Amino acid sequence: MAELKNDVFLRALRRQPTARTPVWIMRQAGRYLPEYREVRAEAGDFMSLCRNARLACEVTLQPLRRFRLDAAILFSDILTVPDALGLGLYFETGEGPRFKRPVQSAAAIRKLSVPDVGSELGYVFDAVSTIRKALDGEVPLIGFAGSPWTVATYMVEGRSSRDFKTIRGLAKEDPQALLTLLDIVTETTVQYLNAQIEAGAQAIMVFDTWGSALEPDDYRRFSLANMQTIVDNLARDKGAERIPVILFTKGAGALLADMVDTGCEALGVDWTTDLGTARRYVEDKVALQGNLDPATLRESPAVIRQGVADTLASYGHGPGHVFNLGHGITPDIAPEHLGVLVDAVHELSPQYHD
Question: Per CATH, which fold does 1-19+236-354 belong to?
Fold first, then answer.
């Protein structure tokens, strides 16, 4: 494959010196872009888009044509794993993801087994290799998966949830059943991410969107422990440098200190924790990614620019910062506003680097 021309993102993840702060955006390929909406209409529905390597590649590249971003991220979804486990994923208009066959008991969990990821999820790996070839070394490609806990919340609840009543009840009433479920999802995720690496992913991110719904001790038992297993079992030694891993627990706060010793290279930080505070939590042992409030992109260019300046200042001087939002960009954002953000990072960040 082509030699990488822009490695500032990977260097920042490894806390190596860079001339500026790299920038990419969670959900950078998505509904805020009119060209994405056109391709989505061509595909017919979301999962058909994910399963078509040519179209998944096209929407992955779209934001790179508009903005000076330092990484591409595979266009896919965290729920491809439970779909491969046979739960019957579908999307209800205006309601988000649903599962036809949620698992809500020990008996249902016992019927699950680790699938053949090559046959069940081969379309994802085809997309990775297609995107990597199309990038032609311009920027690195990020592969990803949901954390086992976050994926399990959808599998047990059967849909998005605000209170996670069913799975939290399972954690209290039958923790062993939940641990069995998490073990199956974890092993599937390890195989899934390793296949993404084999297909060409140059960095890996694990999205733990709902880890903060747990009490701290339960977080360590039901969320962090499985992310640790993933990090421990990834086939990361590809070429001269190891494949870096980013772990992101939305709302982690002080739990960032617990995440440091997993062996990951970087931790994502949402906008509820100041980056300077997060940096003290992790004692500069890992890089940090984040963390402008996504709602800032609804404001004027001057406000967006000031938000970028404040975020850069909150991290401060030195290597190890990847600029991003504190969560994904929302569909209501004007693309031009993201352009203001990216340009501001390019302009304002060099002063924080030697």
Answer: TIM Barrel (3.20.20)
Residue ranges with strand state E in 33-176? 72-73, 89-92, 96-99, 141-146
Alpha helices in 240-300 (DSSP H): 256-259, 275-282
Q: Which of 154, 192, 219, 281 is catalytic?
A: 154
Q: Which of 14, 20, 51, 77 is catalytic?
A: 77
Measured CA to CA in angstroms, residue 22 lies from 19, 25, 173, 331 at distances of: 9, 10, 45, 23
Place of tokens 């999820």: 121
Torsional class of 177: left (φ above 0), alpha (ψ -120 to 50), beta (otherwise): alpha
- Residue where the block lists tokens 């590249």: 61
Q: How confident is the model at residue 69 (pLDDT cuts 50, 70, 90)?
A: very high
Average pLDDT over residues 109-137: 97
Point out the catalytic residue in the list 15, 40, 51, 305.
Answer: 40
pLDDT at 317: 97
Domain ranges of the chain: 1-19+236-354, 29-64+72-233
352 an active-site residue? Answer: no
Domain 1-19+236-354 identical in fold to domain 29-64+72-233: yes
Q: What single-letter DSSP state applies at residue 159?
A: B
- Which CATH architecture describes the domain 29-64+72-233? Alpha-Beta Barrel (3.20)
pLDDT at 2: 78
Which tokens sit at 154? Answer: 């959808």
* pLDDT score recorded for residue 23: 98
DSSP H or E run through 193:
helix 175-199
Instruction: State yes or no: is 77 an active-site residue.
Output: yes
Q: What is the amino acid identity at position 294? A: P
> Is 27 labeled as catalytic in the residue annotation?
yes
Examine the pLDDT at 66 and tell me if it is beyond 80. yes
Among candidates 158, 127, 157, 130, which has minimal Cα distance to 144? 127
At a CB cut-off of 8 Å and minimum separation 6, what does 211 contact? 147, 149, 150, 219, 223, 224, 249, 250, 251, 252, 255
- Identify whether 40 is a catalytic site residue: yes
pLDDT attached to residue 301: 98
Query: What digits encode the pLDDT tens for the residues 88-106?
Result: 988 877 668 889 999 999 9
